[in-house]
Design brief:
Blueprint (H helix, E strand, L loop, with lengths): L3 E6 L4 H11 L4 E4 L11 H11 L3 E4 L7
Parallel strand pairs: 1-2, 1-3
């Protein structure tokens, strides 16, 4: 079985959450959606290290800095 590995950022926001909900319905997908406590998206070294570890086929970037 060929599983797709998807790394999605911003999965707690409106756009990311909706994408994540749709992806969860597909049983042939492994989803990696770390919280900001587990992965600092402002640190390029930690991002590169994380991507090297999980080796995703697809990256969906929905994270943003919002608010006042």
């Amino acid at each position: 079985m060929n599983l797709n590995k998807i790394f999605i950022t911003g999965s707690t926001g409106m756009v990311g959450r909706n994408i994540l909900d749709k992806l969860k319905k597909n049983k042939n997908i492994v989803i990696f959606s770390p919280t900001r406590e587990k992965l600092n998206l402002e640190n390029s070294y930690s991002i590169k290290k994380y991507i090297k570890e999980i080796k995703p086929n697809i990256i969906i970037h929905c994270a943003s800095n919002v608010g006042g």
